[in-house]
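Assess this:
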Amino acid sequence: MIYTILIIIAVIACAISVFMSVSIMREQAKHSKDHIHPTVAKHPLMANAIVILYLAFPILVLIGGLLWWYMDVKGLT
């Protein structure tokens, strides 16, 4: 039960973080850009390391949890 609550809290926190990051990026896109890399100019979301982190972190936590569960079931811990 506690794990379910923690997972729900983590998902909510990640969703809020992604929403806030994207909204800030869109707001900053309206401002003038001095020297910006062409890749970042073409793909502002996919070239942003923070957005990539927000997407990768829950996946890595899920993989780690599955490995932990597997090791616990097999008695390797």
